[in-house]
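Protocol step 4 of 5: obtain the predicted structure for the target chain.
Materials: sequence only (see below). No template structures provided, no constraints applied. The aim of this step is simply to have a reference model before the mutagenesis design in step 5. Sequence pasted as it appears in the construct record:
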Amino acid sequence: MKKVLYLVIACVAVGALILVGADVLSNPGLQGAGKEMPGEVPESQTPCSADGPREDTPYIEIHRAGGRSVFLYPDDSGYPAIEAECREQIQSISGQYKMGFSSAELEAMKQNGTYVAMNFSVPTTFETSYLVGGLLKVITVNEAIIFLDLEGYPETMIITRADDKSGVWDTSRNRRELRDLVAPVMQES
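Step 4 output (C-alpha coordinates):
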Protein backbone atom coordinates (compact mmCIF):
# COMPACT_ATOMS: atom_id res chain seq x y z
CA MET A 1 0.00 0.00 0.00
CA LYS A 2 2.84 2.37 0.90
CA LYS A 3 4.60 1.68 -2.41
CA VAL A 4 1.41 2.46 -4.34
CA LEU A 5 1.09 5.75 -2.48
CA TYR A 6 4.72 6.65 -3.34
CA LEU A 7 4.06 5.73 -6.97
CA VAL A 8 0.97 7.95 -7.12
CA ILE A 9 2.85 10.86 -5.52
CA ALA A 10 5.74 10.40 -7.96
CA CYS A 11 3.37 10.38 -10.95
CA VAL A 12 1.65 13.56 -9.75
CA ALA A 13 5.03 15.24 -9.25
CA VAL A 14 6.20 14.25 -12.74
CA GLY A 15 2.95 15.58 -14.22
CA ALA A 16 3.40 18.90 -12.41
CA LEU A 17 7.01 19.16 -13.63
CA ILE A 18 5.90 18.52 -17.21
CA LEU A 19 3.26 21.24 -16.98
CA VAL A 20 5.68 23.76 -15.46
CA GLY A 21 8.39 22.85 -17.99
CA ALA A 22 6.00 23.27 -20.90
CA ASP A 23 4.96 26.69 -19.57
CA VAL A 24 8.57 27.83 -19.16
CA LEU A 25 9.56 26.59 -22.63
CA SER A 26 6.60 28.30 -24.28
CA ASN A 27 7.25 31.61 -22.46
CA PRO A 28 10.75 32.99 -23.28
CA GLY A 29 10.40 35.64 -20.56
CA LEU A 30 10.49 32.90 -17.90
CA GLN A 31 13.63 31.26 -19.25
CA GLY A 32 16.05 33.87 -17.90
CA ALA A 33 17.47 34.72 -21.35
CA GLY A 34 21.02 33.96 -20.19
CA LYS A 35 20.85 36.08 -17.03
CA GLU A 36 22.23 34.76 -13.78
CA MET A 37 19.83 34.19 -10.95
CA PRO A 38 20.53 36.09 -7.69
CA GLY A 39 22.87 34.06 -5.50
CA GLU A 40 24.01 31.88 -8.40
CA VAL A 41 27.77 31.74 -8.95
CA PRO A 42 29.03 32.09 -12.53
CA GLU A 43 30.61 28.88 -13.88
CA SER A 44 34.01 30.59 -14.10
CA GLN A 45 34.07 31.07 -10.31
CA THR A 46 33.22 27.55 -9.20
CA PRO A 47 36.16 25.76 -7.56
CA CYS A 48 35.65 22.63 -9.65
CA SER A 49 33.55 21.36 -12.49
CA ALA A 50 29.84 21.29 -11.71
CA ASP A 51 29.04 19.65 -15.05
CA GLY A 52 29.18 16.15 -13.65
CA PRO A 53 31.71 13.53 -12.71
CA ARG A 54 34.60 12.47 -14.93
CA GLU A 55 34.44 8.94 -16.21
CA ASP A 56 36.64 6.28 -14.53
CA THR A 57 37.96 8.77 -11.96
CA PRO A 58 37.26 8.71 -8.22
CA TYR A 59 35.60 11.89 -7.04
CA ILE A 60 33.88 13.54 -4.10
CA GLU A 61 30.55 15.25 -4.64
CA ILE A 62 29.65 18.02 -2.21
CA HIS A 63 26.01 19.03 -2.49
CA ARG A 64 24.24 21.86 -0.71
CA ALA A 65 20.53 21.26 0.07
CA GLY A 66 18.43 22.45 -2.86
CA GLY A 67 21.54 23.69 -4.67
CA ARG A 68 24.27 22.59 -6.99
CA SER A 69 26.93 19.98 -6.56
CA VAL A 70 30.66 20.61 -6.63
CA PHE A 71 32.91 17.76 -7.73
CA LEU A 72 36.42 17.35 -6.33
CA TYR A 73 39.01 15.08 -7.93
CA PRO A 74 42.28 13.66 -6.59
CA ASP A 75 44.26 16.54 -8.13
CA ASP A 76 42.13 19.23 -6.39
CA SER A 77 43.63 20.85 -3.28
CA GLY A 78 40.81 19.97 -0.85
CA TYR A 79 40.38 16.38 -2.01
CA PRO A 80 43.00 14.55 0.14
CA ALA A 81 41.72 15.84 3.51
CA ILE A 82 38.05 15.29 2.66
CA GLU A 83 38.81 11.83 1.25
CA ALA A 84 40.67 10.88 4.44
CA GLU A 85 37.76 12.02 6.62
CA CYS A 86 35.21 10.17 4.45
CA ARG A 87 37.29 7.01 4.80
CA GLU A 88 37.37 7.52 8.58
CA GLN A 89 33.58 7.89 8.57
CA ILE A 90 33.19 4.61 6.65
CA GLN A 91 35.70 2.74 8.82
CA SER A 92 33.84 3.99 11.92
CA ILE A 93 30.64 2.20 10.88
CA SER A 94 29.42 0.56 14.06
CA GLY A 95 25.98 -0.81 13.19
CA GLN A 96 23.47 -1.42 10.46
CA TYR A 97 19.96 0.04 10.27
CA LYS A 98 17.20 -2.32 9.24
CA MET A 99 15.85 0.06 6.61
CA GLY A 100 16.30 0.78 2.96
CA PHE A 101 15.39 3.46 0.45
CA SER A 102 14.11 3.23 -3.09
CA SER A 103 16.09 5.03 -5.79
CA ALA A 104 13.42 7.76 -5.87
CA GLU A 105 13.50 8.20 -2.08
CA LEU A 106 17.30 8.41 -2.07
CA GLU A 107 17.33 10.94 -4.92
CA ALA A 108 14.77 13.10 -3.04
CA MET A 109 16.88 12.88 0.14
CA LYS A 110 19.97 13.89 -1.84
CA GLN A 111 18.19 16.83 -3.50
CA ASN A 112 16.87 18.14 -0.18
CA GLY A 113 19.91 17.47 1.97
CA THR A 114 23.49 18.63 2.28
CA TYR A 115 25.81 15.70 1.80
CA VAL A 116 29.25 14.50 0.82
CA ALA A 117 29.32 11.52 -1.52
CA MET A 118 32.56 9.67 -2.07
CA ASN A 119 32.57 7.80 -5.36
CA PHE A 120 35.14 5.15 -6.19
CA SER A 121 36.12 4.28 -9.76
CA VAL A 122 36.33 0.61 -8.74
CA PRO A 123 34.54 -1.16 -5.87
CA THR A 124 36.52 -0.52 -2.69
CA THR A 125 36.59 -2.69 0.44
CA PHE A 126 36.60 -1.33 3.98
CA GLU A 127 36.98 -3.03 7.34
CA THR A 128 34.52 -1.32 9.68
CA SER A 129 34.19 -1.13 13.46
CA TYR A 130 30.96 -3.15 13.28
CA LEU A 131 31.29 -6.51 15.00
CA VAL A 132 29.24 -9.34 13.50
CA GLY A 133 29.70 -12.79 15.01
CA GLY A 134 32.88 -11.63 16.74
CA LEU A 135 34.46 -10.42 13.49
CA LEU A 136 34.76 -6.92 12.08
CA LYS A 137 32.32 -6.38 9.21
CA VAL A 138 33.92 -5.87 5.80
CA ILE A 139 31.90 -3.95 3.21
CA THR A 140 32.52 -3.18 -0.45
CA VAL A 141 31.28 0.14 -1.81
CA ASN A 142 31.13 2.10 -5.06
CA GLU A 143 29.64 5.14 -3.33
CA ALA A 144 29.25 6.32 0.27
CA ILE A 145 26.75 9.10 0.97
CA ILE A 146 27.32 11.01 4.20
CA PHE A 147 24.53 13.45 5.01
CA LEU A 148 25.38 16.55 7.02
CA ASP A 149 21.91 17.92 7.82
CA LEU A 150 19.16 15.45 6.94
CA GLU A 151 16.22 15.99 9.29
CA GLY A 152 14.11 13.06 10.43
CA TYR A 153 16.93 10.53 10.11
CA PRO A 154 19.78 9.55 12.42
CA GLU A 155 22.55 12.18 12.33
CA THR A 156 25.28 9.55 11.96
CA MET A 157 23.65 7.63 9.08
CA ILE A 158 25.75 6.62 6.06
CA ILE A 159 24.28 5.06 2.94
CA THR A 160 26.54 2.90 0.79
CA ARG A 161 25.95 1.51 -2.66
CA ALA A 162 27.84 -1.26 -4.41
CA ASP A 163 26.65 -2.64 -7.75
CA ASP A 164 23.33 -4.27 -6.85
CA LYS A 165 23.56 -3.88 -3.06
CA SER A 166 23.08 -0.98 -0.71
CA GLY A 167 23.36 -0.52 3.02
CA VAL A 168 22.23 1.95 5.65
CA TRP A 169 24.76 2.21 8.44
CA ASP A 170 25.40 3.98 11.72
CA THR A 171 28.82 5.38 12.51
CA SER A 172 30.43 6.22 15.83
CA ARG A 173 32.19 9.25 14.31
CA ASN A 174 30.51 12.68 14.40
CA ARG A 175 30.34 14.99 11.40
CA ARG A 176 32.11 18.04 12.89
CA GLU A 177 35.45 17.57 11.10
CA LEU A 178 33.77 16.72 7.78
CA ARG A 179 31.56 19.83 8.04
CA ASP A 180 34.64 21.97 8.74
CA LEU A 181 36.47 20.50 5.73
CA VAL A 182 33.65 21.02 3.22
CA ALA A 183 32.58 24.48 4.46
CA PRO A 184 35.18 26.38 2.39
CA VAL A 185 34.23 24.43 -0.75
CA MET A 186 30.54 25.22 -0.24
CA GLN A 187 31.38 28.89 0.40
CA GLU A 188 33.30 29.10 -2.89
CA SER A 189 30.53 27.49 -4.90
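Step 4 remarks: The longest helix spans residues 2-26. Helices lie at 2-26, 79-91, 103-112, 176-188.
Proceed to step 5.
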